[in-house]
Amino acid sequence: MDLLMSLGKEAIADEIKEMAKNVEKVKIQEKEINELNNKVVVDSEPVKMKKSTLALGLDGIKLTDTDVFSKSDPYVVISRRRRVEDGGWTPIRISETIKDNLNPRWSEFLIDLTELPDANEDLKIEVFDDGWKDTSIGVVHITISKLEQAHKTRTPLPITDKKMKNGGEILVRSFRMDFGGSENGSGPIASQGMSGGFTLPGGYNGTPNVHSSQTVCPPQTTFPPPTDADSHWIEEHGDLCNLPDLVLDIIAEYLEPKDILQLLDSCPCFEDFRRFLPKYQEINGEDFRKEQHPNQRDGDGDCDGINPEKYFDGPEMNQGAKSIKLNFRWKDQGWGHRKGQVWIQLIRNEEVLADSRKQFHELAPHEYREREVVIKEHPVVDLLKRGDKLRFMLSVGGGGGHYLTVRNFKVLVELKKY
Hints:
By secondary structure, this protein is of the alpha+beta class.
């Protein structure tokens, strides 16, 4: 039985501690051997050597919710195979738990390269839901070289549970190799590998990214700005992609969605900014009480006695939509014929592209009631794209003495993934 399936989080932590003790013993032995046989001397003084490490940052994306009454509390465990024939796994790192979050960002791991598996062996990355009995959300097996490639291409890694069902994805947020060297800067401890790379402990041949804490655009690739109007902006701010990940995250939190989209279009190094795009957009309308215009009679509008007028225009949309939900309280004059209506139009280049009135037809009641409308699989939703806007329409009615009152008008647009 897989080790992590049978052990809880505390047991995993204990095993990591025990493994750390063994690693420390090996390091002491190696140090003693080096002092006897391979001491590095500069001006007759021993040189202190820095460790060779891998800095690895992981994010969860749309993880499966395994909790019943709340969202999962995910943590991630990185393991390597034991050097015995039982086929088990030894955890080498375990993250903190992120409460009630299906898109967690765990703290960056710092892993000694001596703890990593050989080039042809997999690491096991498994996400658990922290609870009374920790549940596996999903797992992926991957070599170090493919892990590095996933970071370079910003390709999320699918994870699956024990029944091979989708558990979400893992994004390799950061992947930095530090090949050590002396504290006085005498260079990395690594033999030169193929194609200018380095041969690491265990035989991994990787691309050097020494002492880098930055996300760097591929030097051989140029990314033209999305429009001529953006050229000056890109020239002035193109060095943003060379900032450290933490600084970029802070910047992204203060950007408007349209600015994030502009960065996404400009360079792949901003791909991680997708996490900051909203999943929903809220649009609110002002309360109103409208009276039928004195000169309006029944029939001044269309054949149904509808006299349409604009309530208000929503903001320009940055993404397409999956659904639109309207919620508001409304009433008419309280007597006589009911004629008051509210609906949506899709506007592109100031022209009406789609109209929802006939398909979602309802008349205002005589007494205050709450109305909720969810629009799906309709042209107003399906045709909506970046640059369009939603226009909210109303009709008081015709024939004399009609009123329409609307309160707490709220719209929630579920956005498509950009």
